Amino acid sequence: MQAALEQARAALATDDVPIGAVVVDPAGAVIGTGRNVREAEADPTGHAEVVALRAAARSRGGWRLDGCTLVVTLEPCTMCAGAAVLARVDRVVFGAYDAKAGAVGSLWDVVRDRRLNHRPEVLAGVLAEESTELLDAFFRGRRAEGREVPQSQARD
Question: For residue 59, which of 31, 40, 109, 111 is within the disulfide window of CB 3.0 to 4.6 Å?
């Protein structure tokens, strides 16, 4: 999770929401990293999880990430939860819960839907305080500067 937090901090340089992710192989080696790049790349799919999963697939030379773990600082949204399922990761580990858009137990539970052919194990709340504080500080700063905070991203 520390590596994911480092990625989240790197997102601040491009004014992206500080969310970071890493993919770890069965031996524990990081094979993909990602941070939010929606602002930096004007890409609505530029979520940390998607960036990390793409990097891991390139590293492995294939899209199946069997045995791998996706580690992310914020509970994945529906798109990212779906990407984790499609990538066939064995587990999803996340820090902070996302009551407004979380799809790994908070608002929806995409990854454990029995209708799907793959359901990763979930470990939630890992370094949740650090992940939450990074996000909260980001949004407090935006509000203090009088900058818009879309409700879909706002954390109270």
Answer: 31
Rounded CA separation 18/44 (Å)? 15
Burial tier of 114 (Cβ tally within 10 Å: 0-12, 13-18, 19+): exposed
Angstrom distance (rounded) from CA 87 to CA 54: 9
Q: How many CA atoms lie within 13 A of 4 on its CB side?
A: 31
> Alpha carbon 67 to chain centroid distance?
18
pLDDT per residue as tens digits for the range 103-135: 999 999 999 999 999 999 999 999 999 999 999
Is 49 within 8 Å of 23 (Cβ atoms)?
A: no
pTM of the entire predicted model: 0.92
